[in-house]
Amino acid sequence: PALAWLVAGEWESQKEFLGAHSLPLTSLVSRAIDGLSDASVRADVITKLLKYFHTDSVCLHDNHPRVLAELQERHYAPIAAWARSTYGIDIKTTTDMFVLRQTPEAADRLRAVVEGFSDLKLAALERAVMTAKSFLIALALVEQHVSVEDAACAAQVEATAQTQLWGELENAHDLDNAAMRQILGASACAALNA
């Protein structure tokens, strides 16, 4: 019932023109109903999402610049630790993106978890992964381990570091920040109601 009210609110807020960007929950519900109710589509989506796990930004840790290394430690380490303890898996971290590859056992365990998601929760995970560019951040969000704000901060570690080093691009970073939170917020609400 709560999700129905939220979707209705999206439609009520439409003015003269429909804005697809202002219907994120409607989009997730439609994806769940129209796309993810098919078993072969679900399997393909899960396989695609798990590819992000193998090169997940949460598992990449730089030594420099210092601000980036500190942000990665603050935002990535707790998510990796949560996934390790919650799912009993080994998550490898590295400073070299080209050698990062997670174990088949860890990927299989996460596949089994995600296969148990409802269509709506899988749609929320898919959208969060595509937005955050991280399987682990998205999983922590839809499993209610992190807030929308924490997920957005983790997803934007590199941009935040660049902004701290070089300054913010007016009408770019602020719009990206708002869009990120809107989409992750919709994903969290959908998962909560799945």
Would you kindly provide a written description of the structure presented here, covering whatever features stand out?
The relative contact order is 0.15. The protein is an all-alpha fold. The chain contains ten helices and no strands. The protein has helices at residues 2-12, 24-35, 39-54, 66-87, 104-115, 119-132, 135-142, 148-155, 157-166, 173-192. The mean pLDDT is 89. α2 (24-35) crosses α6, α2 crosses α10 (173-192) and α3 (39-54) runs antiparallel to α5. The protein is globular, with a radius of gyration of 17 Å. 69% of the residues lie in helices and 0% in strands.
Radius of gyration: 17 Å
Q: What is the beta-strand fraction?
A: under 5%
First-to-last CA distance? 11 Å
Summarize model confidence as the mean pLDDT.
89
Outline the biggest β-sheet.
Answer: none
Structural class of the helix and strand makeup? Answer: mainly alpha
Q: Low-confidence parts lasting 5 or more residues at pLDDT below 50?
A: none
- SSE string, helices as H and strands as E: HHHHHHHHHH
Question: Can you describe this structure in just a few lines?
Answer:
It contains ten helices and no strands.
Task: Summarize the helices and strands and which ones pair or pack.
Layout: H1 2-12, H2 24-35, H3 39-54, H4 66-87, H5 104-115, H6 119-132, H7 135-142, H8 148-155, H9 157-166, H10 173-192
